[in-house]
Structures are given as structure tokens and as C-alpha cells.
Amino acid sequence: MPKLLSRPPKYRLHKSTGQAVVSVHGRVIQLGPFGSAKSHARYQEEIANWRSARQKRCVEEAAEPEVSLKELQARRLRGYPVTIDELALAYLDFARGYYKKNGRVTREAEIIGDALRVLVRHHSGEAADEFGPVKLKEVRERMIDEVDWCRKHINKQVSRLTRMFKWAVSNELIGPTVYQALTTVPGLKRGRSEARETGPVLPVDDAVVAQTLPHLPRIVADMVRLQRLTGMRPGEVCSLRPCDLDQSADVWVYEPGEHKMEHHDTRRLVMIGPKAPRPKSCSRCTSTVTRWPPASSATKPSGSPGVAATKPTCRSTAT
């Protein structure tokens, strides 16, 4: 995992009192006895407040008041250059509006903010039109020396910065040659930079899963088994309802109402075979599950939903 520029405050032990504490904005908050459920619940509340405040914070305090995209475009037409600070603020505002799901800003906007902080910290006040490959490489070195991100994450962050300049060109905030020059900067190669390397994320061994299952609540254990056999994402398992399934054949079909790649206009179908734990019927579900695809529609359009049903209000997940 990448080492973030501003990581969440740690849950830690205050040795003299035996209390769990967390430091937020220089203030030490006591959470309760160290290791207790109460202290962990309080810690999660404080971290949620910390994240909420962090999302509202600007990339850096700009030398001038924040201006809108249209104001920046008008100023450039009058001959005034757009600065790195202004461009970063305008792009972050765009990212927070673009990278949203179900009304909430996604993790991508937060990661973009991390990259912009490094950029603004070292190039505040400079004209965006004068930012070139050499300066981009300097920012990349700062990511290695100051932030200690891993090589793969640095390459992704540099790509995000390059996309910002592409966005600036498309909105006529800078000339096209700036973005074209930045695309000539290659990514860091394994073993040919000072950036740290990280190992692959490996799956949990089946033996570990088998030893863990007897200690889990029955429903949670079934959810683990179901995810193990179908490859569902955790959120898909948690939101699964009996009325969301096409149970007309031995292999059931589950089409989540939302999924990670839906912004690419793709569908997500999960096949649930007879070996998987199967949800039981729910007396509160009033929708009907029909065959997928419908027998009367052999030439069903690819964009049509796979499960025909009126969406119920029931949110129960029984196994």
C-alpha cells in the first residue's frame, strides 16, 4: 500500500494511564481502556471526523483567493498566466465533482489531492505554462525523498499530475505544448531508481481461511465462503438480497445494482453455483424474480438489466 502524505492518526497506548489515545491536530484524545471495543469504536469516530475535515481542506492556501474555472479562463484571455496554485485548486474542485459515487467523493479525489500537495509545496506561485519535464522529474524525486511512496504509486501519481495538465489544455488554461512535453517523461523502472519496491498482495491461504471459519458468526462465515467461491467484492456480498437473484437454473445469476467498473458502462454478473452458500427467501421481499434472460427476448440488448424486478425496500441479507 502507498505511504500517504497525510496518514490517519494512529491508535496508540498511553503507557502511564493504560488508556488508548489518538492525536488529532495536536490534541490528544483519550478513547478508553486500550484494546477495548469502546476505544476502537471511539477511534473510528475520530478518524471519520478527521477524514471529513481533510476532504474540505484545500490543497494549499493559495496566495490569492480561490477563483472559478471561468474566471481563470477569462484572466488568461486578458494575458494573465495561470499559476500552479490556481490550476491545482481548480483541478481539485473538478476532481471532487467528477470522482463521485452515490453522492460521495471517492478515494481517487483524495489521492489526487496528495499528489497536488507535493506539487504546490515546491512550485507555488510559478506559471503553469512554464512547468516542464525537468520540473516534473523534480516533483517525482520529492515523492521519493520526502513522502517515501513506492515506485508503482509514484508512477501513478505522476500520471495524475500529467492528466491535470491535459485537463488544463482542454479548458484553455495553458498551451498544448506543456502537456505534450510532460508526456515524454517515462515511468520509473524496477531497480533503476531510489524509489522503494513493494511485494505483491497475495491471497490468504486456504488453510488459514478454514481455521478461521469456525470462530466467525454463522452469517459472516457463510459470507466468507460465498466470496471465496464466487470472487465477489466485499460490498457486493454485503448488499446481496434474495430478490436480486435469478434462481431459475442450477447456477444462479446475481447482477449487483452497482459495481466498481460501472462508470466504464460495463455489466457485472456473478454466477453462484450449487457449492456456494445460498441465501434463503425473505418474507419482506415483495419483488418477483424472473428468468435471465427472459425467454421472450432472445435478442436482448446488452445494456438492459439482467434481473427483471420491482426494487423492494428490503435490505436484509439472509444466508
Structure in words:
It is a single chain. The protein has 319 residues and is mainly alpha-helical. The chain has helices spanning 37-56, 69-77, 84-98, 107-123, 133-147, 151-170, 176-182, 206-212, 218-230, 234-239, and strands at 12-14, 19-24, 27-33, 100-101, 104-105, 245-246, 252-254, 270-272. The protein has a 3-stranded antiparallel sheet with strand order 1-2-3, covered by helices on one side. It is globular, with a radius of gyration of 25 Å. The protein starts with 11 loop residues before the first strand and ends in a 47-residue tail after the last strand.
Query: Quick check: average pLDDT?
Result: 79
Which spans of ≥5 residues are poorly predicted at pLDDT below 50?
1-5, 58-65, 283-319
Oligomer: single chain
Extended strand count: 8
Given helix and strand content, the structural type is mainly alpha
User: How far apart are the termini?
Assistant: 33 Å
Q: What is the 3D shape?
A: globular
Order of helices and strands: EEEHHHEEHHHHHHHEEE
Total DSSP helices: 10
Strand order, largest beta sheet: 1-2-3
Instruction: Report the β-strand fraction as a percent range.
Output: 5-15%
Proportion of residues in helical segments? 40-55%
Largest sheet: 3 strands, antiparallel
| Rg, Å, rounded | 25 Å
Would you spell out the secondary-structure blueprint of this structure?
Elements: E1 12-14, E2 19-24, E3 27-33, H1 37-56, H2 69-77, H3 84-98, E4 100-101, E5 104-105, H4 107-123, H5 133-147, H6 151-170, H7 176-182, H8 206-212, H9 218-230, H10 234-239, E6 245-246, E7 252-254, E8 270-272
Antiparallel strand pairs: 1-2, 2-3, 4-5, 6-7, 7-8
